[in-house]
Amino acid sequence: MDRKKYITELREQGLSFGKIGKQLGISQQRVYQIYQKRIPIPYSVEKLVYTRDFNECQWQIKCKNDNENLFIHHIDSNERNNTLDNLITLCSSCHAYFHLHINFKGRDAMVEKMKRRTKKICPKCKKEFETKLSRPSKFCSKNCLKHNRTPEEQKEFNRKRTNEYSRKHRNDERFKAKIKQYNKTAYKKRMNNPEKLKEFQKKQNEYQKHRYNTDSEYRKKVLNNQKNK
To answer: What is the mean pLDDT of residues 83-106?
Structure first.
């Protein structure tokens, strides 16, 4: 028996996708795909869409530039149309907001805004690329943007990225283990190179003086250790 006919019969009886999935031994999402005749997006097409959109949410109405949970959205809501012009990257919050909270009357206007793209020429590599009108990009890729920065700007950018990453993953055990390994290797390099060791000691002394003058709890600990000695 055809699975689609069996699923349609169960849906007419009033069963949900989850209950049908338990009967057939498949997931709820797979039942919905069979019921809607959804064609899955190939991996090669997904990769092209993510690279074209710089692995970022192209709507950014509800998200705060959260690029961890990304999805590929069908602009015309036709899950069988997997062309590049019909696909766009959205985050989880914007994707849910589009499907749940936007009315069908206002959906046509949002679809037209998503489809609007213009052609530009990258000033670094002189290649032609497509970009979004609502959120245009100057360069064709992140590599061109990276090479266009000055060394000082690149250092500031890397510093901000490392601070954001450390704030997010500071409670992760794997991240803590990586930091310990990095500190061990850096300590060995400093011991082998006396110039780097002197620079590190100067920076550490300056940091300790600044902390002693600003942090009251650290000052109490230092004084208690001196008394115990």
So the answer is: 75
Domain range for 203:
177-228
Mean pLDDT, to the nearest integer, of 90-107? 70
- What is the total count of domains within the chain? 3
d(CA 57, CA 71): 9
The pLDDT of residue 67 is: 63
* In a domain? residue 17: yes
